[in-house]
C-alpha cells in the first residue's frame, strides 16, 4: 500500500505550533513502527526537514507537489489544481491530510483528514466564504481523525459529518524530552532565562496576536489576585514567542500592579520548555477551547502539578492528573494555587497522579492506531 502524507505543514509557520508537532511526531513514529507500507511525503520544496527523517529507508520518499516560491505559505487556490494532479500521478492508494484545511475540493484517491479543532467557528465574523469553501474538501474524505472526543462532537455538530466516519486518536508527547529526569540541568537552564529566579508559576503560549480563547487576561487577573491575597514573592513566567499581544498583556499587568512579576521568555526550544515544566511550582492553563491540549500533558509528564480549565478537550487530557476548574472563577483558581503551593503533600500527590495520567498517551499508540485506519480504508477500497 502506498500512502501519501501531506507534509507541507512542516514547511509553514505551523511547524512551531500544535499542528506541526503532531505532523512531525506522527511521521517519525510511523516511519519507526510501520515496516509494511510505503510512504510518499508531499512537499512544496526540495529542501525540507522531512528529508532528514528518510535516511536509509527505502520505503519512504519525498514528492514535490509544486515548487513554491515561498514554502512558508500555502496557496490554496493553486493547490486545487496541483495537489489532485500530483496525487493521481503518483498513484497513491490513500492520502492523509495532516492539516484540516489542506484537503482539496477534487478527490482523486481515498482520503483521510486529521481535524485538530474548529476554533474558526468560535468567531462568526471569521467564518467567511473562504473558510467555508476550504472546509468543503473535508466532506468527501473517506475517514476523519479527531484528536479528541470534544473535537469529534464539534465536527458532527458544525460540519454535519456522520459519526461513523470519525475516529478519535489522541496525540502523544515526546517522552524523551518531557519527563521528570535531569532536574539539576533543568534548573541551570531556567536560571539563565529568568535572571536567577527560581520561584515561579508557568504558562506556555504565543503572544503574537490576541486570541480570546487562550483566556490570558483571566490568568493575569488570577495571578494579581493571588499576589494580593498571599503577599507572595513568586513570578509568572510566560513562555513562548512574543509580539504585539505581549505588549497588551504588559499594559494589563501594569494596570493590576504586577508588571514586575511577569517574565516573558520569548521563543524557547522544546528542551527549554521541558526545563520550565520541571522547575515550575505549578503550570496554569485557563484556555476556553482546545482541540487537544498538549501543554498540560507535557507538564504532567514532566512532574509539574497542573491547574487547567475544564472546557472542551482538556478534561480528556488532564483527567484525574490535575485540577480542573471553571475558567472564569478567579476565587477558585486563587484558592487552588494557594493550597498547592502551601501543601507539599498535596502537591506531591498531584504530581504522581499527573505522571500516571501522562502514561496513557504516546506517539507510538497514535501511529499504530493511525496505521490501522489506513488499512481499514484500503480494505474498503479493494
TrEMBL record:
One of its GO terms (biological process) is lipopolysaccharide biosynthetic process. It comes from the Bacteria. Residues 192-356 form the Glycosyl transferase family domain. Gene3D superfamilies: Glycogen Phosphorylase B. Keywords: Transferase. Residues 18-174 form the Glycosyltransferase subfamily 4-like N-terminal domain. The keyword Cell division does not apply. This is Glycosyl transferase family 1 domain-containing protein. One of its GO terms (molecular function) is glycosyltransferase activity.
Amino acid at each position: 500500500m502506498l500512502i501519501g502524507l501531506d507534509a507541507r505543514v512542516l514547511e509553514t509557520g505551523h511547524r512551531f505550533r500544535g499542528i506541526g508537532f503532531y505532523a512531525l511526531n506522527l511521521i517519525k513514529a510511523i516511519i519507526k513502527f510501520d515496516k509494511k507500507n510505503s510512504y510518499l511525503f508531499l512537499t512544496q520544496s526540495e529542501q525540507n526537514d522531512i528529508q532528514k527523517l528518510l535516511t536509509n529507508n527505502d520505503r519512504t520518499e519525498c514528492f514535490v507537489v509544486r515548487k513554491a516560491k515561498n514554502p512558508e505559505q500555502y496557496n490554496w487556490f493553486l493547490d486545487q489544481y496541483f495537489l489532485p494532479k500530483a496525487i493521481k500521478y503518483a498513484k497513491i492508494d490513500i492520502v492523509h491530510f495532516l492539516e484540516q484545511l489542506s484537503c482539496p475540493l477534487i478527490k482523486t484517491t481515498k482520503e483521510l483528514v486529521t481535524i485538530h479543532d474548529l476554533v474558526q467557528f468560535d468567531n462568526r465574523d471569521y467564518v467567511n466564504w473562504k473558510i467555508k469553501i476550504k472546509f468543503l474538501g473535508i466532506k468527501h474524505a473517506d475517514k476523519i481523525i479527531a484528536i479528541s472526543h470534544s473535537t469529534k462532537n464539534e465536527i458532527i455538530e458544525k460540519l454535519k459529518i456522520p459519526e461513523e466516519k470519525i475516529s478519535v486518536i489522541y496525540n502523544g508527547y515526546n517522552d524523551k524530552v518531557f519527563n521528570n529526569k535531569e532536574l539539576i540541568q533543568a534548573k541551570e537552564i531556567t536560571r539563565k532565562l529568568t535572571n536567577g529566579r527560581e520561584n515561579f508559576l508557568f504558562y506556555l503560549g504565543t503572544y503574537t496576536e490576541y486570541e480570546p480563547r487562550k483566556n490570558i487576561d483571566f490568568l493575569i487577573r488570577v495571578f494579581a489576585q493571588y499576589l494580593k491575597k498571599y503577599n507572595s514573592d513568586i513570578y509568572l513566567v510566560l513562555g513562548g514567542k512574543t509580539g504585539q499581544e505581549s505588549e497588551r498583556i504588559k499594559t494589563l499587568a501594569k494596570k493590576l500592579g504586577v508588571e514586575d512579576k511577569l517574565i516573558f521568555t520569548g521563543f524557547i526550544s522544546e528542551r527549554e520548555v521541558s526545563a520550565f515544566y520541571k522547575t515550575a511550582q505549578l503550570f496554569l492553563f485557563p484556555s476556553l477551547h482546545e482541540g487537544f491540549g498538549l501543554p498540560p500533558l507535557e507538564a504532567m509528564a514532566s512532574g509539574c502539578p497542573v491547574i487547567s480549565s475544564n472546557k472542551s478537550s482538556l478534561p480528556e487530557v488532564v483527567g484525574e492528573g490535575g485540577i480542573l476548574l471553571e475558567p472564569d472563577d478567579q476565587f477558585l483558581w486563587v484558592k487552588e494555587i494557594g493550597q498547592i503551593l502551601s501543601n507539599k503533600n498535596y502537591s506531591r500527590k498531584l504530581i504522581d497522579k499527573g505522571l500516571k495520567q501522562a502514561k496513557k498517551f504516546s506517539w507510538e499508540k497514535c501511529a499504530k492506531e493511525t496505521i490501522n485506519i489506513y488499512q481499514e480504508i484500503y480494505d474498503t477500497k479493494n
